[in-house]
Write a structure and sequence with these properties.
The chain is of the alpha+beta class. 21% of the residues lie in helices and 41% in strands. The model has no long low-confidence stretch (mean pLDDT 85).
Length: 80
C-alpha cells in the first residue's frame, strides 16, 4: 500500500476549536476531540500528537508558531 505523492505534498492546516483539533488538507478534513489526545511530545525533528487508538500527527519543528499552538493545545487538553 502506498499513500502516493499527493498525500505528502498537499498543504495541511491544523486549527484548534473549543472542543477539537481540525486537520484540513485538499484531500480530507478530520476532527480530533481533545479527550482523544493521549500524549504530546517532541523529538529532534517533529512535534508528535498521539491520538488514542494509535494514530499520530507529526508537525515539523520548524513550523511557524508551533510553540504557541502546542501550549494552547496542552491547555485545552488539560482543562477540567
Amino acid at each position: 500500500n502506498r499513500l502516493g505523492h499527493d498525500f505528502f505534498t498537499t498543504d495541511k492546516t491544523l486549527c484548534l476549536s473549543n472542543k477539537e483539533i481540525i486537520s484540513t488538507s485538499s484531500i480530507s478534513v478530520s476532527k480530533i476531540s481533545f479527550k482523544n489526545i493521549a500524549y504530546i511530545h517532541k523529538d529532534t525533528k517533529f512535534a508528535h500528537i498521539e491520538i488514542t487508538g494509535g494514530s499520530e500527527i507529526f508537525i515539523p519543528l520548524n513550523t511557524p508558531e508551533l510553540s504557541e499552538f502546542l501550549i494552547a493545545l496542552n491547555d485545552k487538553c488539560h482543562k477540567d
